[in-house]
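Exercise 7. Given the encoded structure of a 265-residue chain, write a plausible sequence.
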């Protein structure tokens, strides 16, 4: 995800010389420097010396260690800190950073890797309007951005857009297999499935109609599509999706509580 953000920011016109990253792996640092022309450091503190904003693109299990390490410099410079670590609440991160500092929690998803992501953001009360704008500018470099005013909604965001790409991949996998079972060659079924998924998403993005209306427009009465939709609905398709999203939401909450309980002792 950090690599995607770096590439997106540079494509948006950010000077690579203004981007510094810290990574313990020498090979990773060399690759990033060669690919993007950015400054790389082995030490988090070295990377932050000239920073105006910090992005913590680390695993949730290590974010407390990283935040505690940079707390002194964060308190001195008072730059905004953007976190992409899933399940880490803003108040926990703010406390590890020493308190009274701007924290923006984000939930991007994997299509950010191809600059087509969807990212929800939540800012704590210490975050200024200018700092919110800066965070939005950075995350918008890899796709759509939406602000949340209630941090508890992050669990629903995780269930819908964070996990959502896997739902569509599963549908595409199933449709491809169904095409093969119906007699199509595997590669033909794959290409037809991928282009159909892409075309449907593009139509939905470019249309002012909602998804239900678009579905009805391609469902002719008494036709093949109507028969297929009837079969899906007979299997309680909507209830299945509802249950899947609710299950993912509950799991996101479980993981967040587990991280919070562990860190809070």
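Solution.
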């Amino acid at each position: 995800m950090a690599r995607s953000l770096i590439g997106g920011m540079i494509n948006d016109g950010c000077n690579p010389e203004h981007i510094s990253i810290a990574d313990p792996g020498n090979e990773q640092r060399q690759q990033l420097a060669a690919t993007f022309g950015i400054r790389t450091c082995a030490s988090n503190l070295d990377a932050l010396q000239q920073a105006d904003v910090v992005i913590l693109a680390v695993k949730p299990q290590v974010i407390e260690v990283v935040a505690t390490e940079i707390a002194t410099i964060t308190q001195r410079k008072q730059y905004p800190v953007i976190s992409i670590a899933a399940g880490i609440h803003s108040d926990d991160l703010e406390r590890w950073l020493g308190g009274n500092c701007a924290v923006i929690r984000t939930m991007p998803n994997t299509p950010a890797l191809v600059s087509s992501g969807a990212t929800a953001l939540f800012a704590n009360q210490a975050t200024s309007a200018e700092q919110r704008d800066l965070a939005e500018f950075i995350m918008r470099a890899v796709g759509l951005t939406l602000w949340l005013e209630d941090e508890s909604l992050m669990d629903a965001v995780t269930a819908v857009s964070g996990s959502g790409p896997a739902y569509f991949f599963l549908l595409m996998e199933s449709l491809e297999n169904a095409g093969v079972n119906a007699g199509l060659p595997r590669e033909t079924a794959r290409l037809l499935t991928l282009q159909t998924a892409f075309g449907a998403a593009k139509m939905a993005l470019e249309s002012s109609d909602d998804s239900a209306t678009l579905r009805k427009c391609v469902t002719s009465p008494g036709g093949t599509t109507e028969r297929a939709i009837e079969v899906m609905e007979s299997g309680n398709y909507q209830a299945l999706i509802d249950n899947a999203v609710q299950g993912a939401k509950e799991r996101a909450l479980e993981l967040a509580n587990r991280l919070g309980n562990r860190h809070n002792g």
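Remark. The chain has a mean pLDDT of 93. Students should compare their own answers with the one above.
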